[in-house]
Write a structure and sequence with these properties.
Length: 194
């Protein structure tokens, strides 16, 4: 594992998953994928900061399926509970397990020309992107840009088996994928219960 603390707003951990778990996650059959606009609750601007978001979808919808949601006692497969444990038990990730929390994860599949416009995930304490595709070339796009509040954004390339953690109230976007290679992500969120 290689920890890259890129800013006070985000951190990157390369080689995050052990190889045996990474292979299970990659070989898992993600079925019942829906476009984000077809979900029962599509991208809801009411969940995000007022006036900070107009449309989270960009060009083409991201395909997605829910994997785990502790608030709803939903787990698609125990494999994803193991992913939750690995994330929340990592010493560099600022979680507070003594408080009651909720954890959710979705599989996101970005096709060519898909991405997500600027937004923040202020309803979540932490937002994680775990890249599970086999390989990635920086020329294929799909970078996550993170607003530093200092002019130029930070850019995180979606290298395989990398975990990107973004703190709450931090504006970010996913640049459009420019290749026919799919950008595959486990998108996880952590939040305290009220």
């Amino acid at each position: 594992m290689q920890l890259l603390n890129i800013d006070d707003k985000a951190l990157i951990i390369r080689d995050f998953l052990p190889n045996n778990i990474l292979e299970q996650v990659r070989s898992y059959k993600y079925t019942k994928l829906k476009k984000s606009s077809e979900l029962d609750q599509p991208w809801d601007p009411a969940l995000y900061s007022e006036n900070k978001i107009t449309n989270k979808r960009n060009l083409q919808d991201v395909k997605t399926v829910n994997l785990i949601d502790t608030k709803k006692n939903y787990v698609l497969n125990p494999l994803f509970t193991k992913i939750e444990e690995l994330i929340l038990e990592h010493s560099a990730i600022p979680t507070f397990k003594e408080k009651e929390y909720d954890f959710s994860a979705c599989y996101y599949q970005y096709e060519k020309n898909s991405g997500i416009n600027w937004h923040d995930d202020n309803v979540f304490a932490l937002n994680f992107s775990l890249y599970i595709h086999d390989n990635w070339n920086p020329d294929w796009g799909g970078e996550t840009l993170i607003d530093t509040g200092r002019g130029l954004p930070l850019a995180s390339t979606p290298f395989p088996n990398t975990l990107l953690c973004i703190k709450e109230n931090v504006m970010h976007k996913v640049c459009a994928v420019t290749s026919d290679v799919q950008r595959k992500v486990l998108q996880c969120r952590y939040n305290f219960r009220n």
